[in-house]
Design goal:
mainly alpha; 0% strand; globular; disordered N terminus; membrane; ABC-2_transporter-like; transmembrane; ABC transporter permease; transmembrane helix
């Protein structure tokens, strides 16, 4: 192949940082473009989020009106409205749903071709997932939040650090959600079909992430245990609490820091599990 540049873009410590960033950006953009093609699904999903937003909002407002802010997790009416509608917008951004692409590729054997590529499957899937989240932020996040503002009104942040902390918290939530979903899908390396664990994840993640109700409604000892012992509250509850300024500034920053710790831990576990799975495939003769 004289005269032909047959170089393959990779992400590795041996390549210049600029080349690795360019490759990661290309994968991210491909994830964005992929989800941008599903226009009808985007519209349908957005309408569904808005309908459920009305249902959840009226239920939580009824709870606050009947029990008072002290028994409604410490949220006032405006904070609950913001919690619900921003939560509906973040649902598709963070990815609290069933994701089975890795499981399907393991079942079909297509994962073998992924392992031949010069980029780790964890890195490739993460870049594509960030592109998906960016598309969700540009489309499915805006409509529910706009409806919430026009119909109910929302609380406005009063602290300077709230908006950048919220943005950082959302990014960490996306990474944490990806780590959880990747680990759940990776059980297919050993189970050969991860549909059971994926179903369990889909059912449990919404409840424990704070989608259906704020975790502050639970007893304090249980809410704290969930926050410290699991990454799930960091997927939705933490970004929403940061935005509505439910806690003092120091605690806001502490919750985002805890998110960062869980994001690092989950990505490290994903890489570790992937390496162990590759060794298992070799032992099986794959």
């Amino acid at each position: 192949m004289d005269g032909i540049d047959a170089s393959v873009p990779t992400i590795s410590p041996g390549r210049p940082l600029r080349a690795s960033v360019t490759t990661f950006g290309a994968l991210l953009w491909s994830g964005f473009r992929r989800f941008a093609t599903y226009r009808q699904a985007t519209i349908a999903g957005t309408c569904t989020n808005i309908v459920f937003g009305f249902l959840r909002c009226y239920v939580l407002l009824a709870v606050a009106a009947g029990a008072g802010a002290a028994l409604a997790g410490g949220y006032d009416a405006d904070q609950l409205v913001t919690y619900v509608w921003v939560g509906q917008g973040l649902l598709s951004v963070v990815g609290i749903w069933s994701w089975n692409e890795l499981n399907d590729r393991i079942r079909s054997g297509d994962i073998a071709s992924d392992l031949l590529r010069p980029i780790s499957p964890v890195t490739a899937f993460l870049a594509a997932d960030l592109g998906r989240a960016l598309h969700g932020m540009a489309t499915r996040f805006v409509a529910p939040v706009t409806v919430g503002i026009l119909v109910f009104g929302m609380t406005v942040p009063t602290r300077v650090q709230t908006v950048p902390l919220f943005a950082l918290s959302v990014v960490l939530a996306v990474i944490g959600s990806f780590g959880c979903r990747y680990l759940v899908n990776a059980t297919a390396y050993w189970l050969h079909d991860a549909r059971g664990p994926i179903t369990f994840w889909t059912l449990g993640s919404g409840v424990l992430a704070g989608l259906y109700f704020p975790l502050r409604l639970l007893p304090d000892w249980l809410a704290v245990t969930l926050w410290v012992a699991t990454p799930l509250p960091g997927l939705l509850q933490t970004p929403l609490d940061v935005l509505v300024e439910r806690d003092p500034s120091a605690l806001q920053a502490g919750l985002v820091a805890l998110q960062a710790v869980w994001a690092v831990v989950l990505l490290a576990l994903a890489h570790l599990v992937q390496r162990r799975a590759e060794r298992k495939l070799v032992v099986q003769g794959g």
